[in-house]
Description:
It is built from 5 helices and 2 strands. It is mainly α. The chain starts with 8 loop residues before the first helix and ends with a helix.
Amino acid sequence: xxxLLEKSQSTRLNDLIAAREKELAKITRYRQGIxxxxxxxxxxxxxxxxxxxxxxxxxxxxxMVLENLKTERDETANGIDLENPFLTAFRKHENxxxxxxxVLIDLVDHIKVFGNGDISVRFKFSDEYRRIAEYIEANxxxxxx
Length: 145
């Protein structure tokens, strides 16, 4: 049996968007249901308001997540721009022989040194690197098929 291929980034994002839209539709149905329950006298007005406010908060949070996912999907669909700041910095510093101040300024966001001696390095372009790597992998898989 051939190894399972991982989903491309855009497919994964589309799946997440579909799941959030389904969740949003469910919340809308629930909010309509509590309105009917209130009108039928099955719940009090204060319970209705409390539940309505809770559903409104959930809906706003999901809307924000959806907006972010759609933005990320659009960026992924646009592919890789050769003028991307990450690629420019990467090309400028390819085959680094030694760590210099200029390399640190261009590529490292921040460094944390903990009391126990551990060190954490956050790179400026870690998200862009992940996105580019996934784009390349997805296109290599398409070319192989």
